[in-house]
Amino acid sequence: MSYGPQPNGNGNRYQGQQPYGQQPYGQQQPYGQQQPYGQPYNPQYAQASAYAPNPNAYGQATMDAASQATYERATHDSVTRTYAEMTIGLLITAAVAFLTQITGAYVAFLRATGMFGIILVAIVQIGLAIYLGARVMNMQASKARVWFYVFAALMGFTLSTIFMAYDLGTIGFALALTAGFFFALTMFGLTTKGNMLKAGPILLIGLIVLIVGQLLVMFLFPGNTGMMVITAIGIVLFAGLTIYDTQFMKMAFATYAAQGPEMIKRISVLCALNLYLDFVNMFLYILRLVGNRD
């Protein structure tokens, strides 16, 4: 075996290799570079090893992890704010309903206004809900919150009638059942990978059909059977709307997260209103289903 350069099989004896310890004339080994003993300089030794950590990649991964953690924390805070707003609205509704009942304010109002008063309150409630849902993104968050609390108080005023139709035990049982059902539905909406947002148009059509069907049963086909069917449909429909509004909340926070805390507060009020309506309507249907009239 000779110690000189060896053929490489294609007639080129050198093919980039030099005799032991020599470099091509005019090509100097880069300062500070170390090559294997007795081997020619290879530029690949000047590159970072594939097994060594890449500082840029490590820094990027750290930044991505930090950004993801910040985003998840902000989303958690926004969701918590939404449920806090909804809970305050429900407490206002319950307090106003109880005070209205013990003072007889609703009965006095009906005696003074009659059927016109009932229709007027219903129109104001619907109009306020539509106004708040349409304008919340363009008003100050504090103003939107006040309007939401006013709506919750007005809802409590009309819901005071349930104390005249059901006993406290039945109301408490229906409320606890609704709270548990609502919690399970919202947790499912927050954790499932299924996309319920695609069902939005179907749920909207179902809500319109439910309202029309309830009016028809009430005036044209009165009876327990028809109302029980409407009640069961209403529970299923608002269960679907609860999951939908929960996923809408997640989507809205992700979409508007970069627009600052003021926008997040507005989204919180809007989502709190949606979830509040889901809870109240589900409660009324469950109360009708399990209620024992006095």
UniProtKB/TrEMBL annotation:
CDD domains the UniProt entry points to: BI-1-like_bacterial
Chain segments annotated as coiled-coil in the UniProt record: none
Residues covered by region (Disordered): 1-39
Keyword Kinase among record annotations: no
Key words of the record: Membrane, Transmembrane, Transmembrane helix
Source domain of life: Bacteria
InterPro entries assigned to the protein according to its UniProt record, in alphabetical order: Bax_inhibitor_1-related
Transmembrane segments: 88-109, 115-134, 146-165, 171-190, 202-221, 227-246, 267-287
Name of the protein described by the UniProt record: Inhibitor of apoptosis-promoting Bax1
Organism of derivation: Bifidobacterium dolichotidis
Lineage, uppermost ranks: Bacteria, Bacillati, Actinomycetota, Actinomycetes, Bifidobacteriales
